[in-house]
Every structure is written in C-alpha cells, then in structure tokens.
C-alpha cells in the first residue's frame, strides 16, 4: 500500500454575493434542458417566498425602496470587447437554470455565475459544457460554442493522501481552470496515482506537503510534483467536485468519441477567449487546425504533464503563418510563451506537429 486516506471537514463559505438572473423553476436533483423563457423579461417572477427580477433579489419581506443591483462587468474597468450573448447555466450537482451574460474571460464568467447563484466565486472548481458529469472531454477551456450549456462544478469534500513516489512519473496530467485552481485532468492507467482509488479525475490540487499551490499555473504544480525525489513520501491535499446522489464520473482514462446530449452545443460558432483579455465570436476550427491543436496538447502532456487547449491554440496560432522552424522559434521567444522556457528539441517537436497537421498527416 502506497497511501493512506484521511477525510477532513470541509470549509464553509459565507461571503454573500448578490444574485442576478435566475429563471423560475422547481427545485431539481438532476440537470434539466435549457429553459426557453426570455431572459430579458422584465416582469417579476415568484419562486416560493422569494421574488426575482432581471438583476435583483429580495426575500419578499420589507422590500427595499431601491433595489440593489449586481455591478455590470463594464463598470469594473478595462477597455475590453464583450459580445452581448446569453448562455444557459446550471450548477452541476443540481439547480435552477440561470442566464449568464456580459463576460469576456473565464474569470469574468465565474464571477457572473457566482453572482447568479449567490455564492463566492472561489467555490467554482471548473465548468463543463453540455454535461453535468466530471467529464474532462467536455471541459470548458478557451472557447464556448454559442449554443453550449454551461455546468459549474463547486468545491466539495477536501481530502489528504500520503503518497510514496515509487516511480519517477506519477501518471498525472494537470490542467487549470483559468482562475488559479490546478486540477487533475487525466490519470494514466497502471501508474502510481492510478493505484490510489481516493484520487480522482477532477480533484483540485490545493496543497503539496503543506505548501499552498492555489494561484499557481498547472505547469508550476506539475514541476513541483516532478521535482519530488523518487522514493520519498509526500502529502497532497485535494478538493473533489461536489456530487449529487447518483452523479456519474467519466472514466479516468477516457477514450472513444466525444458524446454530447442532443440539442446542446450544436452551433458552428464559438465565443473564444483571447490571451489579451478580449473575446471574439469565431467559426469552429477546421479539421486540420483541430488536429494540430490536439497534437500540440499531446506534446504538452508528454513533455510537461499538463493539458491546456488554450495554450495549444496559442502555439498553433504562432506557427500557422510561419514557413520554417526558425521563424516559429523566434515567434515563441517574442511572445509571453518565452516564460515556459521551451527547449530547442521541444520547439522542433511542436513545429513537426504543426507541419504534419497542415499536410493532413494527423487524423482525428
């Protein structure tokens, strides 16, 4: 046995955040299809003893003379393009459907969701698209389809596991939520971590040997794990996503075609988050581009132990109009990707993935 398992009492979060648009719905235990009611309807809706309008909330007793409103994202400063789109959203463990709009980054999206459901933004671990399950093939990354349904996964139970690093590689692929939380995206079959049943895909890595890693990027956490000497023992503190009674979790090492619910995510355009803070509506990637991005992401997994579609897309964009590896390397050095310290050999591997995709040698 390489590990023992200790469950800790979960922390509570009490900082209130004003709710925004929540549609009329009965309490549910499983996610429901998108509501068809117009989110811009200005009439009050009654839900039990509480009343809602488009941007305000009160409990029905002694309503204030001036209704409080959540701050619009435009009031937060910055000269950022924010498409006026409305997305359906639910909490993955069950909730009424909310309508989310006015965001141009993942952090702003989380803020809007937390305002809609009246809890702290720090409670969101990650979001999935068109599935309420902890399914990494549906993880929200750097883009959202215009018809995608968003499911937000909140923090659940914390746990600590003591691990003996009996092999050089632990078998983890790590990604992050774009707002400071690194979590496990994939567990390699037969690896050190795979032999510990208490560690699951979707678990947020909060501490390593007592060192708080909240706020660190996925590659920094992956490097810390890689630097732990083989044969040593370390403790990892994790926070699992909140689960409802029979909520399913996708396999640790999922293969096969990606599946989505009929009626969700059928649009051909996506809202893509840019690294400069802007968001833009773009057509879906063609097959060659998507194959190239997937190949780059596989290289990031193999060389760095991370999975990041947004980073892979940025690398693809830098190489898409280059004619040789030297120009590609110079483009990386001139971008914010220089901080990763990619080796010359790794850049050549990346360039090979780009040229293979251009010439149709990658198959989806």
UniProtKB/TrEMBL annotation:
Residues 30-66 are annotated as: Disordered. It comes from the Eukaryota. SMART domains: PDZ. InterPro entries: GH2_GIPC (IPR055349), GIPC1-3_GH1 (IPR056814), GIPC1/2/3 (IPR017379), PDZ (IPR001478), PDZ_sf (IPR036034). CDD domains: GH2_GIPC, PDZ_GIPC. Signal peptide: none annotated. Pfam families: GIPC1_GH1, GIPC1_GH2, PDZ. Residues 160-240 form the PDZ domain. Belongs to the GIPC family. This is Putative rgs-gaip. It comes from Culex tarsalis. The lineage of its organism: Eukaryota, Metazoa, Ecdysozoa, Arthropoda, Hexapoda.
């Amino acid at each position: 046995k390489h590990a023992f398992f200790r469950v800790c009492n979960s922390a509570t979060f009490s900082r209130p955040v004003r709710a925004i648009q929540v549609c009329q719905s009965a309490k549910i235990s499983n996610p429901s299809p998108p509501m068809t009611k117009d989110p811009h309807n200005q009439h009050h809706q009654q839900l039990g003893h509480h009343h809602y309008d488009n941007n305000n909330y009160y409990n029905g007793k002694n309503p204030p003379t001036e209704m409080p409103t959540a701050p619009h994202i435009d009031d937060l400063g910055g000269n950022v393009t924010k498409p006026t789109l409305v997305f359906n959203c639910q909490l993955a463990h069950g909730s009424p459907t909310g309508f989310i709009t006015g965001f141009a980054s993942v952090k702003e999206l989380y803020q809007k969701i937390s305002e809609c459901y009246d809890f702290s933004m720090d409670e969101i671990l990650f979001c999935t698209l068109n599935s309420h399950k902890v399914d990494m093939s549906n993880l929200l990354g750097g883009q959202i389809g215009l018809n995608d349904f968003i499911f937000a996964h909140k923090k659940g139970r914390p746990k600590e596991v003591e691990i003996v690093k009996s092999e050089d590689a632990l078998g983890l692929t790590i990604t992050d939520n774009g707002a400071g939380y690194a979590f496990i995206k994939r567990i390699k079959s037969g690896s050190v971590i795979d032999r510990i049943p208490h560690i699951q895909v979707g678990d947020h890595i909060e501490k390593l040997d007592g060192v708080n890693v909240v706020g660190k990027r996925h590659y920094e956490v992956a490097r810390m794990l890689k630097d732990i000497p083989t044969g040593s023992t370390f403790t990892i503190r994790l926070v699992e996503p909140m689960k409802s009674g029979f909520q399913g979790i996708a396999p640790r090492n999922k293969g096969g075609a990606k599946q989505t619910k009929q009626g969700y995510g059928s649009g051909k355009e996506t809202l893509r988050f840019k690294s400069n803070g802007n968001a833009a509506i773009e057509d879906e990637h063609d097959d060659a581009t998507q194959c190239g991005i997937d190949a780059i992401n596989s290289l990031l997994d193999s060389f760095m132990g991370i999975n990041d579609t947004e980073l892979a897309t940025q690398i693809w964009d830098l190489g898409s109009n280059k004619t040789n590896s030297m120009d590609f390397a110079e483009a990386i050095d001139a971008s914010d990707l220089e901080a990763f310290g990619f080796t010359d050999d790794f850049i050549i591997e990346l360039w090979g993935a780009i040229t293979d995709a251009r010439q149709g040698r990658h198959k989806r």
